[in-house]
Specification:
The structure is a single chain. By secondary structure, the chain is α+β, with helices and mostly antiparallel strands. It has a single domain, classed as Ribosomal Protein L22, Chain A (Alpha-Beta Complex), CATH 3.90.470.20. It is built from four helices and ten strands. It is globular, with a radius of gyration of 16 Å.
């Protein structure tokens, strides 16, 4: 798989045990190995990764929400994915504790309908960073408005991630890749 392409596998959500089997099957097929040869591990912050077989730097991220399982596969850059139902009614006050002052100002200007896409961008970046919500989400500001675009997220440390907005039926999704380089996403729903 080339550095600038991410394959996003989309499936109806299945129980956790079955989605683990599905993820293993997808990754084994991508690596050209059997499920038994595939060894998955987690970082100290819980980010899953392929421990064996050693190979071309395959990276993956997964997310699930009511009705959907999404697995992003790419490499060698770190990546993250998140999804939420677009019709979700967010509580602006609840999200406020995860926002920088600039994000709160932008949210006030854009309105509540911009919060769900903002949140999936934020979570995708935090997953790509490898910290999830162990990190302070305010250290990774992301744009609130501008749905349907490719964005930059620059952390307080200066690290850069690219974030792409996606739509799949009633869901909003975001895929983030480490680094400033552009990338494409190929969605597969079977």
């Amino acid at each position: 798989m080339t550095e600038d392409r991410v394959v996003l596998h989309l499936r109806p959500y299945v129980p956790r045990r079955r989605h683990q089997d599905l993820v293993r099957a997808l990754l084994a097929a991508q690596l050209g190995c059997s499920r038994d040869e595939l060894v998955l591990a987690r970082t100290s912050r819980g980010k899953p990764y392929v421990q064996a077989p050693a190979g071309p730097g395959l990276r993956f991220s997964l997310t699930h929400c009511p009705g959907l399982l999404a697995v992003a596969v790419g490499g060698p850059r770190e990546l993250g994915v998140d999804a939420e139902p677009a019709a979700q009614q967010p509580d602006p006050d609840a999200f406020g504790r995860f926002m920088t002052l600039d994000e709160r100002r932008e949210a006030a200007r854009c309105g509540a309908e911009a919060l769900v896409p903002w949140w999936v961008r934020k979570e995708a970046v935090l997953k790509a960073v490898g910290a999830g919500l162990w990190a302070d989400p305010r250290d990774w500001p992301v744009p609130v408005g501008g749905n349907g675009r490719l964005h930059f997220a620059v952390g307080r440390s200066g690290a850069v991630h690219r974030v792409r907005d996606l739509r799949y039926g009633p869901y909003v999704l975001a895929v983030a890749c480490a680094g400033p380089a552009n990338f494409s996403v190929q969605m597969r729903d079977r």
